[in-house]
Design brief:
Layout: H1 6-14, E1 17-22, H2 28-43, E2 47-50, H3 73-83, E3 87-92, H4 104-107, E4 113-117, E5 128-131, H5 138-148, H6 155-168, H7 179-190, H8 195-203, H9 208-219, E6 222-224, E7 229-234, H10 236-242, H11 254-257, E8 264-272, E9 275-282, H12 288-294, E10 298-299, E11 303-309, H13 313-329
Parallel strand pairs: 1-2, 1-3, 3-4, 4-5, 7-8
Antiparallel strand pairs: 6-7, 8-9, 9-11, 10-11
This protein binds guanosine-5'-monophosphate (5GP) and manganese (II) ion (MN).
């Protein structure tokens, strides 16, 4: 299916004030789909609020419209008050309401609210939802939404959506990359996207600090289960030593994942004192979304994650390994 639910299209078409939100620690798809949809809606003459919990990581600041992102809840309240009945809240690429961040309870109180997403296990926490778990990215879905509304997709919007799709498909490599994904990418290129420029911004634009951080993170590599499970980690100390932020660790997990024998790669991240975020990446038949769900998280079959509070990185690993052993041995 490539067309959005008619109720979603109608909701977006009718309302004149749209509040857009996505998950905390946003990746390329979260930001690209949010900024792309914002451009499309503004092209339709609507008032749009681009809300994020935190400022955008430098890696993504090239995306058109980034400068309009607001992190201040007071400004959100003003927008909502001004919009009155003409308001629609749209949550993008966000598998559950908690992932909206600390302001989630207030954000989801701004109704009506619709959810557009491709995560497995999304319970559709809004008044309306368009969720297709086989989709490569939320960005791909936003293209179809624009088509269904017969809205114009400017070059700026196309750049955002292309960045969303290329990041969430690992540059068109993951299982979810379909013929439709390539069709959409082709249409975006027709609208003026230069793939090499987007790729340069995303993949050839790092700081030296990130390379030094990568050295430390890769040096932490542990192999388990006859080299079928790889574990790497990042600590706050490593970030301090290399003058980097957690955003700089994006894609590091692909290195252990790329080892021939590896079935599951694990990345343990000390996001703050006492809080560990776990990223899981699987190859082949392993379903790591089920494992993440056992620990209160979620995601996709091949890419999922969860958070743990009050445990050391070693303890988190020790809880996880027996579950992974079970999964790779079935
Ligand atoms: P990443 O490893 O890049 O942080 O996340 C990979 C996938 O797992 C993403 O699709 C993301 O939505 C999902 N994910 C990561 N952490 C969590 C979490 O704490 N809760 C849920 N529900 N999903 C998560
Ligand atoms: Mn996504």
């Amino acid at each position: 299916m490539t067309s959005p639910d008619q109720s979603v299209v109608a909701a977006v078409q009718t309302k004149g004030h749209i509040l857009l939100a996505t998950h905390y620690n946003p990746d390329g798809d979260a930001l690209g789909s949010l900024l792309g949809l914002a451009e499309i809606l503004e092209g339709m003459g609507k008032q749009v609020f681009r809300y994020l919990e935190e400022p955008v990581s430098p890696l993504y600041r090239f995306l058109p419209g980034c400068g309009h992102i607001q992190t201040d809840m007071e400004k959100v309240r003003e927008f909502v008050a001004h919009a009155k009945d003409d308001l629609l809240t749209v949550c993008l690429d966000c598998g559950d309401a908690n992932r909206l961040g600390t302001n989630s309870p207030e954000l989801i109180s701004f109704r009506p609210l619709i959810v557009i997403d491709h995560h497995q296990g999304n319970n559709g926490f809004g008044d309306g939802a368009w969720i297709e778990t086989h989709r490569s990215s939320t960005g791909e879905m936003i293209f179809d939404l624009a088509e269904a509304m017969e809205a114009e997709i400017s070059t700026r919007a196309a750049e955002c959506l292309y960045a969303a799709i290329t990041t969430d498909t690992g540059s068109f490599r993951y299982e979810s990359t379909s013929s439709h994904t390539f069709m959409v990418a082709g249409q975006l290129v027709r609208r003026g996207v230069h793939p090499e420029i987007i790729s340069n911004h995303l993949y050839d634009n790092y700081t030296l600090g990130r390379l030094r951080l990568m050295q430390e993170v890769l040096a932490s590599l542990e192999m388990h289960e006859r080299d079928r499970i790889a574990v790497i980690r990042v600590t706050q100390k490593m970030l301090e030593r290399t003058f980097t932020t957690m955003g700089d660790t994006e894609y590091f997990i692909n290195f252990p994942r790329a080892v021939r024998s590896v079935r599951v790669a694990v990345f343990l991240k000390e996001v703050s004192t006492g809080v560990v975020s776990v990223s899981l990446r699987a190859k082949g038949q392993c379903d790591v979304s089920l494992i993440a769900a056992q620990f209160g998280g979620g995601g996709h079959r091949n890419a999922s994650g969860y958070r743990v509070k009050g445990q050391t990185l070693d303890a988190v690993r020790d809880d996880l390994l027996p579950r992974l052993r079970q999964e790779i041995n079935v």
